[in-house]
Design goal:
Distance between the termini: 5 Å
CATH topology: Jelly Rolls
Structural class: mainly beta
Helix content: under 10%
Order of helices and strands: EEEEEEEEEEEEE
Radius of gyration: 16 Å
Shape: globular
Number of domains: 1
Strand content: over 45%
Largest sheet: 8 strands, antiparallel
Strand order of the largest sheet: 1-13-3-9-10-11-6-7
CATH class: Mainly Beta
CATH architecture: Sandwich
């Protein structure tokens, strides 16, 4: 039988935006979690690229402790150990474009270390674009009960959204 995806919660930034998205009281009744997001910030980022990196917290602790990413920007490719798995479009890029991605969290109820994988695309109607495959590990030794998406010092723009799904292996 196929896996069953169940929507747990969708968060959408209202007028004026917000500083973070918080998924709290995550039920412990699923096998895995999937977090799908479409994010933009309200200002230009810290450089001239049309995106900024965002962070995750599991149960209040910043994730991860180690990571590896492979990326392509439209003009370059590479890899590094960036610890920020969420990419958000900023105002240096095309208006009304959002960074979109999916975060897969297997075995989130385990007391073992947590691994995640991320697939992100930063769309832009110009040569600067972004595609990232990212994986990370955290030594969190408890079940995940809350997830926060944030980027210190930036406001998540209106109409940005994130949806959390539970997966049951049937």
């Amino acid at each position: 039988m196929p896996n069953t995806f169940t929507l747990i919660q969708t968060l959408t930034a209202g007028a004026g935006g917000q500083s973070e998205f918080d998924f709290t009281s995550i039920p412990q009744t699923y096998t895995d979690l999937v977090l799908k997001f479409s994010l933009r910030i309200t200002t230009g980022g810290y450089d001239s690229t049309p995106w900024v990196t965002g962070r995750l917290r599991f149960n209040g602790s910043t994730f991860p402790t180690s990571a590896k990413q492979l990326y392509g920007t439209g003009s370059a490719t590479g890899s590094d150990t960036n610890l920020a798995p969420v990419f958000m479009e900023d105002t240096d890029g095309t208006a009304s474009i959002f960074g979109n991605g999916e975060i897969y969290i297997p075995n989130y109820t385990s007391t073992a270390s947590k691994a995640i994988s991320v697939d992100v695309i930063g769309e832009n109607n110009a040569t600067a674009s972004l595609a990232v495959l990212w994986s990370g590990l955290n030594t969190l030794a408890s079940a995940i009960t809350s997830i926060t998406i944030f980027q210190d010092g930036y406001t998540i723009a209106q109409h940005s959204s994130a949806s959390l799904y539970g997966i049951k292996n049937s």
